[in-house]
Amino acid sequence: MLEEKSGQKPVVWGVLGASHFALMASIPAMQRAPLVRLKALASRSLDKAKQAAASVNVPHAYGSYEELLADPEIEAIYNPLPNNLHVPWSIKAARAGKHVLCEKPIALTATEAEELAKVQRETGKLIAEAFMVRYHPQWQLVAEVIQSGRIGAVRAVQTAFSYTNTDLGNIRNQKEAGGGSLYDIGSYAINTARLAFAAEPQRVVGVCVRDPKSGCDALTSAILDFGTGQANFVVGTQHVPYQRAHVFGTKGHLEVEIPFNAPHDRPCKVYVDDGFIGAPDFTVKQSSDDARGLLPLLAANQYTRQAQAFSEGIRNGTRIENDIHSAVANMRVIDAIFRSAESQRWEQV
Q1: 304 phi and psi angles, rounded to 5 deg
Q2: Structure pTM?
Q3: Range list of H helices, 96-207
Q4: pLDDT, tens only, 226-236
């Protein structure tokens, strides 16, 4: 349970847009955070805004984004707009005096993200990328285990993430809006690999297979070279739904069973083993929950924890994950993978 610190006034939030994801997942979760008071939702249609706000019990609706940003009571903006609208409306929000939590990917290029970073410096407002996974206890535990030295030095990270979506009317399949697998889910694999290595990759190589109808990458694979080790991932939007992440160290191995779409109604599973399971001498016991160490976790809603942490950053000045500097770094990797897919060679980040 998240608890409100005594005497602290909740941060007043507004939401740009009425996306299905926001209405079904992030907004209800945000409303459970003690330091969040969600006041208003804006859409380009007042009727749509009213319907959306009523569906999630948000008290006020605005018929334009500008009206929402002009509300003097609102302190923070959640931006789940289409990817190509992340930077322009986050800039407008910051210049209107609002802190901004923007959905990933925060931009379509690193240059765009750097423009947003410049505005952050100008305005002094908090701007962060909404990689909610960083706030889930399972990834916090993974980071702690790595830092403790239990699995030794990290040498490899292996990630797979996929789902099926061939609807050309869906924003995730619209190239001009920033659709495609690398932006949508490859960004998670990059973010968590950077977390595991506690470093930035030096160079990358990638392959993208583009859907002939949408022009978006429907299947992307990449290798990230961190110097001390490598991360590799495959992400896709037109094959079996699946996700898993592995972290391999010099002394042990971590496996995150549901690394990204973590359920909030039950504990997740993170396994650790000392490297004997599956060893090539065939003298080891079979892999099972008993043979591997199941690390203890409690059920948690990563969207609630993200909103609470961002609000605490506003109220208390505490550190937030995925700040604008981390967001720029993630975009530099995405840029390099796209360049590599075109050049068919390694590209520097």
Answers
A1: -65, -45
A2: 0.93
A3: 110-123, 137-148, 181, 187-197
A4: 999 999 999 99
Question: Hey, what amino acid is at 251?
Answer: K
- Rounded to whole angstroms, the Cα distance separating 93 from 100 reads 7
- In CATH terms, 11-131+305-321 corresponds, of 3.30.470.20, 3.40.50.720, 3.40.190.10, 3.10.20.310, to 3.40.50.720
Segment 171-185 shows an average pLDDT of 97
- Measured distance CA(64)–CA(117) in Å, rounded: 25
Look up tokens 């972290």; give the residue.
247
Between CA 166 and CA 236 the distance in angstroms is 11
Q: How far apart are CA 52 and CA 63, in angstroms?
A: 11
pLDDT, tens only, 298-322:
999 999 999 999 999 999 999 999 9
Span 97-156, pLDDT tens digits: 999 999 999 999 999 999 999 999 999 999 999 999 999 999 999 999 999 999 999 999
Q: Which long-range contacts (CB under 8 A, 24 or more apart) does 19-25 make?
A: 19/80, 19/81, 21/80, 22/78, 22/80, 23/52, 23/55, 23/56, 25/303
Residues 6+ apart with CB under 8 A from 148: none
How far is the C-alpha of 178 from the C-alpha of 103, rounded, in Å? 12
What six digits make up the tokens of 275? 């490297």
Q: Judging by beta carbons within 10 Å of its beta carbon (0-12, 13-18, 19+), is residue 176 exposed, middle or buried?
A: exposed
Q: Does the domain made of 134-301+330-348 have the CATH classification 3.30.360.10?
A: yes
